[in-house]
Specification:
The chain is built from six helices and seven strands. The chain is α/β, with parallel strands linked by helices and 179 residues long. A five-stranded mixed beta sheet has the order 4-3-5-6-7, sandwiched between helices. A two-stranded antiparallel sheet has the order 1-2. Helix 1 packs parallel to helix 6. The longest helix is centred in the C-terminal third of the chain and has 21 residues. The protein is globular and about 45 Å long.
């Protein structure tokens, strides 16, 4: 299956499959497991991970927390952070990934929260804005904001790719080099 962005360019799922293979190998080598906390991707990251046979050896769970209530109830995101910063914010992404790690008792987690469109954007947070957070045992939680272009499917696909790549990058990081 291929996903096409609004310009009609094909984005190969094989790129995501390769990232999942790399991620699986890294987690298995460490004897670690992971979890996802997803909003704008609606479970797509977890789906990509569990498409791989044998993923139960390294993938624990995926939490789809689309609503603010779900973010609070399932991940422990503080309601005042949601009110002050909005769901699409660094603070919320950080609490989402930490909540996923804590609830699953895993060594690695990724969280995404964003505006996939076509509606919902603003001047401060245009459609395509996504906050990422990666939490890996022994490292400081890393966050990043990206603004992707394209239609809803393209923005979500780019989010999945970036989330997986970021987790691979974190897993290969040298803890001594973290600040």
């Amino acid at each position: 299956m291929q996903v096409r962005n609004s310009e009609g360019e094909a984005m190969a799922e094989s790129a995501v499959s390769s990232l999942v293979e790399k991620l699986a190998a890294m987690l298995l080598a460490k004897g670690w497991r992971m979890a996802t906390a997803e909003s704008c991707t609606g479970g797509w990251i977890a789906k990509c991970c569990t498409d791989r046979a044998g993923s139960s050896a390294w993938f624990d769970r995926g939490l789809v927390t689309y609503s603010d209530a779900a973010k609070s109830d399932l991940l422990g995101v503080e309601s005042n952070l949601l009110q002050q910063n909005g769901a699409v914010s660094e603070a919320v992404a950080r609490q989402m990934t930490l909540g996923a790690r804590e609830s699953a008792e895993v060594e690695a987690a990724v969280a995404v929260t964003g505006i996939a469109g076509p509606d919902g954007g603003s001047a401060a947070k245009p459609v395509g804005t996504v906050w990422f957070a990666w939490s890996v045992s022994g490292l400081q939680t890393r966050t990043e904001r990206k603004v992707f272009s394209g239609d809803r499917a393209s923005i979500r696909f780019q989010t999945v790719q970036h989330a997986l790549q970021g987790l691979c990058d974190q897993l290969s990081a040298n803890p001594e080099k973290q600040t």
